[in-house]
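A further point concerns the way the authors explain their paired sequence and structure data. The central task, working out the C-alpha coordinates from the amino acid sequence alone, is never made concrete. I therefore recommend that a typical entry be quoted early in the introduction. An entry of this sort, consisting of the sequence and the corresponding C-alpha coordinates, reads as follows:
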Amino acid sequence: MNWQAVDFDWNQIRAFLATVEEGSFSAAARALGSTQPTLSRQITALESKLGVTLFQRGHRSMSLTAAGAGLVDHVRTMADAATRVSLVASGQSLAAEGLVTITATSFTAARFLPLVVKTLSEEAPGIEIEIIASNDVRDLNKREADIALRHARPDHPDLVARQIDETPAFLYAARGWLDAHGRPKSLTDLTGLSFIGFDQPARVVAGLAERGLPISRQDVRYRCNTGEVILELVRAGLGLSVLPRFIAEDYDELEAVLTDEFSVTVPTWLVTHSELRTSSRVRIVFDVIARTFAENKTGGPKDRP
Protein backbone atom coordinates (compact mmCIF):
# COMPACT_ATOMS: atom_id res chain seq x y z
CA MET A 1 0.00 0.00 0.00
CA ASN A 2 1.42 3.38 -1.00
CA TRP A 3 0.30 5.46 1.96
CA GLN A 4 1.91 8.58 0.56
CA ALA A 5 -0.53 8.49 -2.38
CA VAL A 6 -3.66 8.62 -0.18
CA ASP A 7 -2.85 11.49 2.15
CA PHE A 8 -5.65 13.83 1.00
CA ASP A 9 -8.23 15.03 3.50
CA TRP A 10 -11.56 13.14 3.62
CA ASN A 11 -13.38 16.43 4.20
CA GLN A 12 -12.06 17.61 0.84
CA ILE A 13 -13.44 14.48 -0.82
CA ARG A 14 -16.81 15.09 0.88
CA ALA A 15 -16.82 18.67 -0.37
CA PHE A 16 -16.13 17.52 -3.93
CA LEU A 17 -18.80 14.81 -3.95
CA ALA A 18 -21.40 17.04 -2.27
CA THR A 19 -20.84 19.69 -4.93
CA VAL A 20 -21.33 17.12 -7.67
CA GLU A 21 -24.47 15.72 -6.05
CA GLU A 22 -26.03 19.06 -5.05
CA GLY A 23 -25.13 20.92 -8.25
CA SER A 24 -23.52 24.05 -6.80
CA PHE A 25 -21.04 25.20 -4.18
CA SER A 26 -23.72 26.99 -2.17
CA ALA A 27 -26.08 24.00 -2.14
CA ALA A 28 -23.23 21.66 -1.18
CA ALA A 29 -22.22 23.96 1.67
CA ARG A 30 -25.79 23.92 3.00
CA ALA A 31 -25.99 20.13 2.74
CA LEU A 32 -22.75 19.75 4.70
CA GLY A 33 -23.62 22.39 7.27
CA SER A 34 -20.63 24.41 6.14
CA THR A 35 -20.07 27.73 4.39
CA GLN A 36 -19.39 28.36 0.72
CA PRO A 37 -15.91 29.88 1.30
CA THR A 38 -14.88 26.90 3.45
CA LEU A 39 -16.13 24.42 0.89
CA SER A 40 -14.42 26.30 -1.94
CA ARG A 41 -11.12 26.21 -0.03
CA GLN A 42 -11.47 22.46 0.54
CA ILE A 43 -12.01 21.80 -3.16
CA THR A 44 -9.11 24.08 -4.12
CA ALA A 45 -6.88 22.21 -1.67
CA LEU A 46 -7.99 18.87 -3.15
CA GLU A 47 -7.24 20.12 -6.67
CA SER A 48 -3.80 21.19 -5.52
CA LYS A 49 -3.14 17.84 -3.85
CA LEU A 50 -4.29 15.83 -6.88
CA GLY A 51 -2.75 18.17 -9.42
CA VAL A 52 -5.94 18.49 -11.50
CA THR A 53 -8.77 20.99 -11.96
CA LEU A 54 -12.06 19.45 -10.85
CA PHE A 55 -14.50 22.23 -11.71
CA GLN A 56 -14.63 24.86 -14.41
CA ARG A 57 -15.70 27.97 -12.55
CA GLY A 58 -17.69 30.73 -14.23
CA HIS A 59 -19.09 34.00 -12.93
CA ARG A 60 -22.41 32.40 -12.03
CA SER A 61 -21.92 28.77 -12.96
CA MET A 62 -19.68 25.78 -12.44
CA SER A 63 -19.25 22.51 -14.30
CA LEU A 64 -17.19 19.36 -13.92
CA THR A 65 -14.02 19.12 -15.93
CA ALA A 66 -13.15 15.87 -17.69
CA ALA A 67 -10.71 15.12 -14.86
CA GLY A 68 -13.40 15.73 -12.27
CA ALA A 69 -15.92 13.56 -14.09
CA GLY A 70 -13.38 10.76 -14.22
CA LEU A 71 -13.07 10.77 -10.43
CA VAL A 72 -16.77 10.84 -9.52
CA ASP A 73 -17.44 7.09 -9.55
CA HIS A 74 -14.31 6.39 -7.50
CA VAL A 75 -15.24 9.04 -4.96
CA ARG A 76 -18.76 7.63 -4.68
CA THR A 77 -17.25 4.24 -3.92
CA MET A 78 -15.19 5.84 -1.17
CA ALA A 79 -18.30 7.53 0.23
CA ASP A 80 -20.24 4.26 0.21
CA ALA A 81 -17.41 2.57 2.08
CA ALA A 82 -17.27 5.39 4.62
CA THR A 83 -21.04 5.11 5.12
CA ARG A 84 -20.71 1.37 5.69
CA VAL A 85 -18.02 1.98 8.33
CA SER A 86 -20.34 4.45 10.04
CA LEU A 87 -23.25 1.99 9.94
CA VAL A 88 -21.21 -0.85 11.38
CA ALA A 89 -19.73 1.35 14.10
CA SER A 90 -23.16 2.72 15.02
CA GLY A 91 -24.55 -0.80 15.12
CA GLN A 92 -21.95 -1.84 17.68
CA SER A 93 -22.90 0.95 20.08
CA LEU A 94 -24.25 -0.37 23.37
CA ALA A 95 -25.02 3.03 24.83
CA ALA A 96 -28.70 3.96 25.15
CA GLU A 97 -27.88 7.56 24.37
CA GLY A 98 -27.14 9.75 21.39
CA LEU A 99 -29.05 10.89 18.34
CA VAL A 100 -31.60 8.82 16.41
CA THR A 101 -33.16 10.31 13.28
CA ILE A 102 -36.68 9.26 12.27
CA THR A 103 -38.34 10.11 8.97
CA ALA A 104 -42.07 9.81 8.35
CA THR A 105 -44.84 11.39 6.30
CA SER A 106 -46.20 14.59 7.76
CA PHE A 107 -49.48 12.99 8.90
CA THR A 108 -47.71 10.13 10.65
CA ALA A 109 -45.06 12.37 12.14
CA ALA A 110 -47.60 14.80 13.58
CA ARG A 111 -50.00 12.19 14.94
CA PHE A 112 -47.75 9.45 16.33
CA LEU A 113 -44.16 10.58 16.76
CA PRO A 114 -44.90 13.01 19.63
CA LEU A 115 -46.26 9.97 21.51
CA VAL A 116 -43.05 8.11 20.72
CA VAL A 117 -40.84 10.98 21.89
CA LYS A 118 -42.87 11.33 25.08
CA THR A 119 -42.33 7.67 25.92
CA LEU A 120 -38.62 7.89 25.10
CA SER A 121 -38.21 10.97 27.29
CA GLU A 122 -39.40 8.85 30.21
CA GLU A 123 -37.82 5.49 29.40
CA ALA A 124 -34.57 6.51 27.67
CA PRO A 125 -33.87 10.18 28.45
CA GLY A 126 -30.33 9.94 27.06
CA ILE A 127 -31.61 9.47 23.51
CA GLU A 128 -31.99 12.55 21.31
CA ILE A 129 -34.57 12.46 18.53
CA GLU A 130 -34.60 14.32 15.23
CA ILE A 131 -37.82 14.04 13.20
CA ILE A 132 -37.80 14.57 9.45
CA ALA A 133 -41.44 15.07 8.42
CA SER A 134 -41.41 14.54 4.69
CA ASN A 135 -43.21 12.57 2.00
CA ASP A 136 -39.87 12.08 0.23
CA VAL A 137 -38.38 8.62 0.68
CA ARG A 138 -35.12 9.01 2.57
CA ASP A 139 -32.24 6.65 1.81
CA LEU A 140 -31.40 4.67 4.95
CA ASN A 141 -28.38 3.13 3.23
CA LYS A 142 -26.84 6.60 2.99
CA ARG A 143 -27.66 7.44 6.63
CA GLU A 144 -30.20 10.10 5.65
CA ALA A 145 -32.18 8.68 8.58
CA ASP A 146 -31.79 5.85 11.09
CA ILE A 147 -35.43 4.76 11.08
CA ALA A 148 -38.17 5.33 8.52
CA LEU A 149 -41.94 4.95 8.58
CA ARG A 150 -42.99 4.18 5.02
CA HIS A 151 -46.21 3.25 3.26
CA ALA A 152 -44.57 0.71 0.94
CA ARG A 153 -42.38 -2.22 1.84
CA PRO A 154 -38.75 -1.57 0.86
CA ASP A 155 -37.07 -4.26 -1.23
CA HIS A 156 -33.41 -3.54 -0.45
CA PRO A 157 -31.77 -6.61 1.16
CA ASP A 158 -29.89 -4.52 3.74
CA LEU A 159 -33.08 -3.04 5.20
CA VAL A 160 -35.15 -4.60 7.97
CA ALA A 161 -38.88 -3.88 7.66
CA ARG A 162 -41.82 -4.67 9.89
CA GLN A 163 -45.45 -3.90 9.05
CA ILE A 164 -46.99 -2.24 12.08
CA ASP A 165 -50.30 -0.87 10.83
CA GLU A 166 -52.89 -0.66 8.07
CA THR A 167 -54.86 2.53 7.69
CA PRO A 168 -58.16 2.77 5.77
CA ALA A 169 -58.48 5.86 3.60
CA PHE A 170 -61.53 7.21 1.75
CA LEU A 171 -62.55 10.09 -0.45
CA TYR A 172 -63.52 13.11 1.65
CA ALA A 173 -64.99 16.52 0.93
CA ALA A 174 -66.34 19.37 3.01
CA ARG A 175 -70.07 19.10 3.66
CA GLY A 176 -70.59 22.62 2.32
CA TRP A 177 -68.84 21.67 -0.92
CA LEU A 178 -71.04 18.59 -1.26
CA ASP A 179 -74.16 20.67 -0.57
CA ALA A 180 -73.16 22.96 -3.44
CA HIS A 181 -72.00 20.32 -5.94
CA GLY A 182 -74.20 17.39 -5.01
CA ARG A 183 -73.37 14.08 -3.38
CA PRO A 184 -72.11 11.54 -5.92
CA LYS A 185 -74.26 8.41 -6.20
CA SER A 186 -71.66 6.39 -8.11
CA LEU A 187 -68.03 6.57 -9.18
CA THR A 188 -69.02 7.91 -12.60
CA ASP A 189 -70.56 10.95 -10.90
CA LEU A 190 -67.03 12.00 -9.88
CA THR A 191 -66.07 12.92 -13.44
CA GLY A 192 -65.55 16.65 -13.81
CA LEU A 193 -65.38 17.35 -10.07
CA SER A 194 -62.42 19.08 -8.44
CA PHE A 195 -59.76 16.82 -6.92
CA ILE A 196 -56.83 17.63 -4.67
CA GLY A 197 -53.75 15.44 -5.14
CA PHE A 198 -50.61 14.50 -3.22
CA ASP A 199 -48.59 14.07 -6.40
CA GLN A 200 -48.26 15.17 -10.00
CA PRO A 201 -51.65 15.13 -11.78
CA ALA A 202 -50.75 12.33 -14.18
CA ARG A 203 -49.77 10.06 -11.30
CA VAL A 204 -52.87 11.00 -9.32
CA VAL A 205 -55.07 10.16 -12.31
CA ALA A 206 -53.26 6.87 -12.94
CA GLY A 207 -53.43 5.84 -9.28
CA LEU A 208 -57.13 6.58 -8.96
CA ALA A 209 -57.89 4.96 -12.30
CA GLU A 210 -56.42 1.70 -10.98
CA ARG A 211 -59.06 1.88 -8.25
CA GLY A 212 -61.94 2.60 -10.59
CA LEU A 213 -62.14 6.40 -10.38
CA PRO A 214 -62.71 7.86 -13.89
CA ILE A 215 -61.16 11.30 -13.53
CA SER A 216 -59.05 13.29 -15.97
CA ARG A 217 -55.90 15.42 -15.69
CA GLN A 218 -58.08 18.55 -15.72
CA ASP A 219 -59.95 17.33 -12.63
CA VAL A 220 -56.81 17.48 -10.46
CA ARG A 221 -56.95 21.23 -9.94
CA TYR A 222 -54.92 21.53 -6.75
CA ARG A 223 -52.01 19.57 -5.35
CA CYS A 224 -49.47 19.69 -2.56
CA ASN A 225 -46.87 17.30 -1.16
CA THR A 226 -47.79 18.01 2.46
CA GLY A 227 -50.64 16.12 4.09
CA GLU A 228 -51.67 18.93 6.42
CA VAL A 229 -52.05 21.35 3.52
CA ILE A 230 -54.12 18.81 1.55
CA LEU A 231 -56.37 18.44 4.58
CA GLU A 232 -56.84 22.20 4.88
CA LEU A 233 -57.62 22.52 1.17
CA VAL A 234 -60.36 19.92 1.56
CA ARG A 235 -61.69 21.61 4.69
CA ALA A 236 -61.76 24.92 2.81
CA GLY A 237 -64.20 23.42 0.31
CA LEU A 238 -61.91 23.16 -2.69
CA GLY A 239 -62.70 19.60 -3.70
CA LEU A 240 -62.25 15.90 -2.98
CA SER A 241 -59.17 14.08 -1.81
CA VAL A 242 -58.16 10.71 -0.41
CA LEU A 243 -57.50 11.10 3.31
CA PRO A 244 -56.71 8.62 6.10
CA ARG A 245 -59.82 7.95 8.16
CA PHE A 246 -57.97 8.48 11.44
CA ILE A 247 -57.21 12.05 10.34
CA ALA A 248 -60.48 13.00 8.62
CA GLU A 249 -62.76 11.70 11.38
CA ASP A 250 -61.49 14.44 13.69
CA TYR A 251 -63.25 17.09 11.58
CA ASP A 252 -67.05 17.26 11.67
CA GLU A 253 -67.15 19.37 8.52
CA LEU A 254 -65.69 16.52 6.44
CA GLU A 255 -67.83 13.79 4.91
CA ALA A 256 -66.71 10.52 3.36
CA VAL A 257 -67.97 9.88 -0.17
CA LEU A 258 -68.94 6.53 -1.74
CA THR A 259 -67.35 4.47 1.02
CA ASP A 260 -68.96 1.26 -0.26
CA GLU A 261 -67.43 1.73 -3.69
CA PHE A 262 -64.05 3.27 -2.97
CA SER A 263 -61.48 2.75 -0.24
CA VAL A 264 -57.71 2.41 0.02
CA THR A 265 -55.71 0.47 2.58
CA VAL A 266 -52.45 2.22 3.44
CA PRO A 267 -49.85 0.02 5.18
CA THR A 268 -47.21 1.43 7.49
CA TRP A 269 -43.79 -0.20 7.53
CA LEU A 270 -41.19 0.41 10.21
CA VAL A 271 -37.78 0.27 8.56
CA THR A 272 -34.14 0.47 9.61
CA HIS A 273 -30.80 -0.67 8.27
CA SER A 274 -29.79 -4.18 9.30
CA GLU A 275 -26.50 -2.89 10.68
CA LEU A 276 -28.34 -0.57 13.03
CA ARG A 277 -30.53 -3.23 14.63
CA THR A 278 -27.62 -4.03 16.96
CA SER A 279 -27.39 -0.39 18.10
CA SER A 280 -28.96 -0.10 21.52
CA ARG A 281 -30.43 3.37 20.99
CA VAL A 282 -31.82 2.54 17.52
CA ARG A 283 -33.31 -0.72 18.78
CA ILE A 284 -34.97 1.06 21.71
CA VAL A 285 -36.53 3.68 19.41
CA PHE A 286 -37.56 1.01 16.89
CA ASP A 287 -39.34 -0.98 19.61
CA VAL A 288 -41.03 2.06 21.13
CA ILE A 289 -42.41 3.06 17.72
CA ALA A 290 -43.77 -0.47 17.19
CA ARG A 291 -45.35 -0.43 20.65
CA THR A 292 -46.88 3.00 20.11
CA PHE A 293 -48.58 1.86 16.92
CA ALA A 294 -49.81 -1.31 18.61
CA GLU A 295 -51.42 0.81 21.32
CA ASN A 296 -52.85 3.41 18.91
CA LYS A 297 -54.19 1.49 15.93
CA THR A 298 -55.52 3.47 12.99
CA GLY A 299 -57.22 0.57 11.28
CA GLY A 300 -56.34 -3.07 10.76
CA PRO A 301 -54.77 -5.31 13.41
CA LYS A 302 -51.43 -5.60 11.65
CA ASP A 303 -48.46 -6.28 13.91
CA ARG A 304 -46.21 -8.88 12.38
CA PRO A 305 -42.52 -9.11 11.44
